[in-house]
Design brief:
heterodimer; A: 160 residues; alpha+beta; Nuclear Transport Factor 2, Chain: A; Archaeosine Trna-guanine Transglycosylase, Chain: A, domain 4; six-stranded antiparallel β-sheet; three-stranded mixed β-sheet; 12 strands; 24% helix; elongated; B: 819 residues; alpha/beta; nine-stranded mixed β-sheet; four-stranded antiparallel β-sheet; 36 helices; 15 strands; 54% helix; globular; nucleus (chain A)
Chain lengths: 160, 819
C-alpha cells in the first residue's frame, strides 16, 4: 500500500473531474476527517486516516481491501472508475440524468436507455459526457454486475 | 396427484366438492357391507358412544338442539382460527410436517389435532395427549349430544328398520355436512402439504390405531421389535412407510417403557433399533445420529430431524446506512414480495414468505439496501453490541453479513478489521461491503491464529468459528453423512486455538469494550460448551450474559463432562424450537491482559482442587503455629487468614475455571512469587517457615533469586529446586493443592513447578501448586487450582509473558513483589 504518485494522481483526478468537476477538493477534506487515496495492487482506495493507521500494520500480501475502492489502474496506466465510487461521486455530480421508472429496470439489467426513457437531464450536457444516472427518486443507480468497471459513459443513453 | 378412491375417507370441508359430488365413495358405502363395517370402525369415540346410547334407547336425552354439529365444532373452530392466526408460516410448515411425521393425516381432526399439537408443542406432543384431547372433546359432545338427536330423529322419521350402523353412518354424513363448511380450506391445504413419506392410508390407520390405543388399549397389539430376519430385510430394501411407523411405535413404547415394553427386550435394544430406523429414514450417518440422540430427548429428536428436512424461511436485514426498514418493506412489497418483520427482537430483520421477483436481484439489493442473512446470524452481532468509534475485529468474516451488521451498528465510524482465511470467500466480503456502503473496514487475509501478533488491542472481537455445521443441516444435507468423530475433534481443536488468539487480541483495558463473542453454527457440545470451558480455564476471561432474552441456555453438564456454571449464560438455538438455524453464542469479558501460565488445563481440576483445599487448610494452621518468630507469626497469622479466606472463597464459589482463573491470576502472582521467594528463601535460610518466607518475599533477595532461577533453563531449574527443596524441612506439609490428580503427594520437587515450566509434563504443573500453596500458604492462595497453574503469571516462566504484562499482573496480584 502506498500513496499515489504525482502522475497517477493526475490521471485519476482528471477522470473524476469529468463527473464532478472542481468539487474534487470536497472529497479530500471532509468534515469527519481527512481522507486520502492509497494505491494497493493497482487499485485506488479511498480511506480515512484513522483506518489508514490500522491498515499500516497489515502486510501487503495479506491486505485485500480497505475503505472504499474507487477504481483501478490498468496495465497501461489508465484509470477506470468503479461503480463503488458512485456513493461519493453522486452528491457532487455535475451532469445528471434522470430516467423514468419504466426504463429504470431495463437500465439496471444492462440495457441502454432510449431517449424516450429520459425523465430529466441537466442542461448543457454534451455528447459523451460523463454523467451520473439517477432514478426519479434521486437514487443513483447501480447495475449488475455492480463491481464491473464500466465507466458511466459507456452505459449511457442512445441519443436520438 | 389424482384423488384416490377411498370409500372410507370422510369428506369434510365446506366446499362444493364435499357437498355435491359425493362420488363413488358414497355409492359404494351403501352397497358394500364391508364399507359399513369400516365406517363403524372409523367412527370417532364420540360417535361410538352415541351409537351405544342409542342402542340403549335413551331417546329423551337426544332431543336437543336441531343443529347437530354446531356446538362442538365452534368449540373447535375458534381454536382453529386462533391457531391459524398465531401460526407463522415457518411454524405452519413445521406443523404440517409434524403432523405428517406423526402420521395423523385425517383432514379435519388433523387440523384440530394440529392445534392441539401446537398448544402441546412445548410439552412434547404425543399420541397420548392427542387421544386424550380428542377424548375430552368427545365428552363435551356427549353432554350436548346433538348428533344423536338428529340421527335419532332421522331414524324415527324413517322408521326403525335402519340398523344402528346405518344410522351411525347417516349421522356421520350429517355431521360432515355441517362440519364441511368450516374445514374445507384446511382440508385442501393439508392435502397439498401432504408430501411426507407416509401415504394417507397408512397415517390414517396410524391415527386410528393410536386413537384406539388411547381409548381401548386392548384392541391394539403391543408393539413388537422386529426379529433379526426382518431387520436384514429392511437393510436391503427399506420400506420407508414401515420404518416410519416403527419409529413412532418405538417412541411411544419408550415413553411408557414400564407398561409397553415387550418382555425380554431391554431398553437399549429399542434404542438401538430406533437409531437404525432414524438413520435410514432421514438418511443420517450413524455417528451423527448417535450424537443427536445424546443431545435431545426422543420427542425433540424427531422434531429436530424433521426440521432439518425443511429449509428455514428466508430472512433479510435492512441496511440502516442506506435506508429504513419501513421504506425497504414498502419498496419490496411494491415489487411483489410478501414479507413481514422478523420479530420483536430485531429492528432490522424481515422475513420473506414468497416473492415474485428474485430476492437477490432487486434494484434495492443492488443498491445495497438490504442483505440476505439468516436470522440466527444476526444474533451474535446483537450480543456483541459494538459501539461507535471502536476498534473491532471480525476473525472469520466471510461472506460479510456480520461484518456489515457491525458496521451499520457503528454507523461507519471506528474501524473494523474483517479477516478470513479463505481467499475465495474474501471476494464476496469485498463485494458485499462495497455494495452495502461500508467504509470503515479493512479486509485482510490472515489465518485467525496469527492474531494478535499481526495487530491486537481491539475493543471487541467477533469470532464466528468454522465448525462442523450440524446446526445448518437444512442448508447442507451432506453434513448428515460426512461428519464423524475426527471431524468434530478437528473442528474443536481449531476453534480452541482461534478462541485463544481472539481472546489475546482483545484489549481488556479498553474503555468501552473488552468483549468477545464466540459463536458457531453447530449444536455439538464438543464444539460449543467444551471450547468455551477450555477458554475459561486458559485465559483471564469470564462469561457474561449475551443480552439475548430468548434461546435455550447452554449446558453446564453433559454426559460425563462438567462445565463451569456460568455457561448458563450462553445461548443455544435450534431449528425446531426457534425456527432458525442451529446456533451457539457465548459472550466473554476479558478482565486482564495477562496470560495465565496454566499448562495443565484439566477439566477435572476443580474436583481435586476442592479436595486439596481442606488439606491446605490443615497444613496452614500448623504452619503459623510452627512459626518461631512471634512478630512474624503475627504477620503469618494475618497472611494465613487472608489465605484461608481466599481459599475458602474459591472453594465456596464455583470451583470451576473461571473463578479459578480470576482468582488465580490475582493470587497467582503472589502465590508464585511467594513460592519462588519462599524457595529462594528456603534456599537461603533452609527454613520453610511461612514467616520466613514472608520475610523473604518482601525482601529483595527473592527477585534476585527469581532472576537467577528464571535464567536457568527449566530443566535445570527443576534440579536446582529439587536441591533446594531437599534442604527444606517441612516439605511434607506442602498441601497437595495441585489441581491434578497427583496432588496428594507432596514432593519437594513440586517446588519448581511454580515457575511454570510450560514444557514440563502436566505432572510437573500439577505438583507445582502444592509447593506454592504450602509455602505461600498465607498468600492469597485462593486454593484455586488455577492458582498454581496460573500462578506462573509473569514472574516465573521465562518463556511467556512480556515484562509489561508481567508488571501488570504483579501489581494486580501481589504487592510484595518488586519486579
Amino acid at each position: 500500500m502506498r500513496p499515489l504518485t504525482e502522475e497517477e494522481t493526475r490521471v485519476m483526478f482528471e477522470k473524476i473531474a469529468k463527473y464532478i468537476g472542481e468539487n474534487l477538493q470536497l472529497l479530500v477534506d471532509r468534515p469527519d476527517g481527512t481522507y486520502c487515496f492509497r494505491l494497493h495492487n493497482d487499485r485506488v482506495y479511498y480511506v480515512s486516516e484513522k483506518i489508514l493507521k490500522l491498515a499500516a500494520n497489515i502486510s501487503g500480501d495479506k491486505l485485500v481491501s480497505l475503505g472504499t475502492c474507487f477504481g483501478k489502474f490498468t496495465k497501461t496506466h489508465k484509470f477506470r472508475l468503479h461503480i463503488t465510487a458512485l456513493d461519493y461521486l453522486a452528491p457532487y455530480a455535475k451532469y445528471k440524468v434522470w430516467i423514468k421508472p419504466g426504463a429504470e429496470q431495463s437500465f439496471l439489467y444492462g440495457n441502454h436507455v432510449l431517449k424516450s426513457g429520459l425523465g430529466r437531464i441537466t442542461e448543457n450536457t454534451c455528447q459523451y459526457q460523463g454523467v451520473v444516472v439517477y432514478s426519479m427518486a434521486d437514487v443513483p443507480l447501480t447495475r449488475p454486475p455492480w463491481r464491473s468497471c464500466w465507466p458511466w459513459e459507456s452505459t449511457g443513453m442512445v441519443e436520438r | 396427484m389424482g384423488r384416490k378412491l377411498d370409500p372410507a375417507k370422510e369428506k369434510r370441508g365446506p366446499g362444493r366438492k364435499a357437498r355435491k359430488q359425493k362420488g363413488a365413495e358414497t355409492e359404494l358405502a351403501r352397497f358394500l357391507p364391508a364399507a359399513g363395517d369400516e365406517s363403524s370402525k372409523r367412527l370417532s369415540s364420540r360417535a361410538r358412544k352415541r351409537a351405544a346410547k342409542r342402542r340403549l334407547g335413551s331417546a329423551e336425552a337426544l332431543e336437543m338442539a336441531k343443529f347437530p354439529g354446531a356446538k362442538p365444532l365452534p368449540g373447535k373452530l375458534p381454536k382453529g382460527v386462533s391457531g391459524g392466526a398465531v401460526q407463522t408460516p415457518g411454524k405452519k410448515g413445521a406443523q404440517s410436517l409434524l403432523r405428517a411425521s406423526q402420521g395423523k393425516k385425517r383432514p379435519a381432526p388433523t387440523h384440530s389435532s394440529e392445534e392441539e399439537e401446537e398448544e402441546d408443542d412445548s410439552e412434547e406432543d404425543d399420541v397420548v395427549n392427542q387421544g386424550g384431547l380428542w377424548g375430552s372433546e368427545d365428552s363435551d359432545a356427549d353432554m350436548i349430544d346433538d348428533y344423536g338427536a338428529d340421527s335419532n330423529s332421522e331414524a324415527d322419521d324413517e322408521g326403525e328398520e335402519l340398523l344402528p350402523i346405518e344410522r351411525a353412518a347417516r349421522k356421520q354424513k350429517a355431521q360432515e355436512a355441517v362440519a364441511g363448511s368450516q374445514w374445507s380450506e384446511e382440508e385442501t391445504e393439508e392435502e397439498e402439504e401432504a408430501e411426507e413419506g407416509s401415504p394417507e392410508s397408512g397415517p390414517q390407520k396410524n391415527d386410528e390405531t393410536d386413537g384406539g390405543l388411547q381409548i381401548n388399549v386392548d384392541e391394539e397389539e403391543p408393539f413388537v421389535l422386529p426379529s433379526a430376519g426382518e431387520m436384514e430385510q429392511d437393510a436391503q430394501a427399506p420400506d420407508l412407510q414401515r420404518i416410519h411407523k416403527r419409529i413412532q411405535d418405538i417412541v411411544a413404547v419408550l415413553r411408557d417403557f414400564g407398561t409397553q415394553r415387550e418382555e425380554g427386550r431391554s431398553r437399549s435394544e429399542y434404542l438401538h433399533r430406533l437409531q437404525k430406523d432414524l438413520a435410514t429414514y432421514y438418511s443420517y450417518g450413524d455417528f451423527l445420529l448417535g450424537k443427536l440422540m445424546d443431545l435431545f430427548p426422543l420427542s425433540e429428536l424427531v422434531e429436530f430431524l424433521e426440521a432439518n428436512e425443511v429449509p428455514r424461511p428466508i430472512t433479510l436485514r435492512t441496511n440502516t446506512l442506506k435506508t429504513r426498514r419501513r421504506d425497504l418493506a414498502q419498496a419490496l412489497i411494491n415489487r411483489g414480495v410478501n414479507l413481514d418483520p422478523l420479530g420483536k427482537w430485531s429492528k432490522t430483520g424481515l422475513v420473506v414468505y414468497d416473492s415474485s421477483v428474485p430476492i437477490g436481484a432487486t434494484p434495492e439489493y443492488l443498491a445495497g439496501h438490504y442483505m440476505l442473512q439468516g436470522a440466527s446470524s444476526m444474533l451474535p452481532v446483537m450480543a456483541l453490541a459494538p459501539q461507535e468509534h471502536e476498534r473491532i475485529l471480525d476473525m472469520c468474516c466471510a461472506p460479510g453479513g456480520k461484518t456489515s451488521y457491525i458496521a451499520q451498528l457503528m454507523k461507519n465510524t471506528g474501524v473494523i478489521l474483517a479477516n478470513d482465511a479463505n481467499a475465495e470467500r474474501l471476494k464476496s466480503v469485498v463485494g458485499n461491503l462495497h455494495r452495502l456502503g461500508v467504509t470503515n473496514t479493512i479486509i485482510s487475509h490472515y489465518d485467525g491464529r496469527q492474531f494478535p501478533k499481526v495487530v491486537g488491542g481491539f475493543d471487541r472481537v467477533l469470532l464466528d468459528a468454522p465448525c462442523s455445521g450440524t446446526g445448518v443441516i437444512s442448508k447442507d444435507p451432506a453434513v448428515k453423512t460426512n461428519k464423524d468423530e475426527k471431524d468434530i475433534l478437528r473442528c474443536a481443536h481449531l476453534q480452541k486455538e482461534l478462541l485463544l488468539s481472539a481472546i489475546d487480541s482483545v484489549n481488556a483495558t479498553s474503555k468501552t469494550g473488552g468483549y468477545l463473542v464466540y459463536c458457531t453454527c453447530s449444536i455439538m457440545v464438543e464444539e460449543n460448551e467444551w471450547v468455551v470451558d477450555y477458554a475459561l480455564k486458559k485465559r483471564n476471561v469470564r462469561l457474561v450474559p449475551t443480552g439475548l432474552d430468548f434461546g435455550q441456555e447452554g449446558f453446564t453438564r453433559f454426559r460425563e463432562r462438567r462445565f463451569h456454571p456460568t455457561l448458563r449464560s450462553t445461548r443455544r438455538f435450534y431449528p425446531h424450537t426457534h425456527n432458525m438455524d442451529g446456533f451457539f453464542i457465548a459472550k466473554f469479558k476479558k478482565f486482564s491482559n495477562s496470560i495465565p501460565q496454566s499448562q495443565t488445563g484439566n477439566s477435572a481440576a476443580s474436583t481435586p482442587t476442592n479436595l486439596d483445599l481442606p488439606e491446605v487448610k490443615d497444613h496452614m494452621t500448623p504452619k503459623p503455629k510452627g512459626s518461631s518468630h512471634p512478630a512474624k507469626k503475627a504477620r503469618v497469622a494475618v497472611k494465613a487468614k487472608q489465605q484461608l479466606q481466599k481459599r475458602q472463597h474459591p472453594k465456596k464459589a464455583s470451583f470451576q475455571k473461571q473463578n479459578g482463573i480470576s482468582k488465580g491470576t490475582d493470587s497467582s502472582s503472589p502465590t508464585v512469587s511467594c513460592d519462588t521467594k519462599s524457595q529462594a528463601s528456603s534456599k537461603l535460610q533452609d527454613s520453610s517457615q511461612p514467616a520466613q518466607k514472608a520475610e523473604v518475599i518482601r525482601g529483595p533477595k527473592v527477585p534476585r533469586k527469581l532472576k537467577q532461577q528464571l535464567a536457568m533453563p527449566q530443566a535445570s531449574k527443576k534440579v536446582a529446586f529439587r536441591k533446594q527443596n531437599a534442604s527444606r524441612v517441612t516439605d511434607t506439609e506442602v498441601p497437595v493443592l495441585s489441581l491434578s490428580k497427583t496432588q496428594a503427594t507432596l514432593k519437594p520437587e513440586d517446588c519448581d513447578q511454580p515457575f511454570g515450566n510450560s514444557k514440563r509434563a502436566e505432572k510437573v504443573k500439577q505438583q507445582l501448586p502444592e509447593q506454592p500453596f504450602k509455602k505461600a500458604a498465607f498468600r492469597k492462595q485462593n486454593g484455586t487450582p488455577k492458582g498454581p497453574e496460573t500462578s506462573t503469571v509473569s514472574l516465573l516462566s521465562s518463556s511467556r509473558p512480556p515484562p509489561a504484562k508481567r508488571r501488570k499482573s504483579q501489581s494486580r496480584g501481589s504487592s510484595h513483589l518488586s519486579s
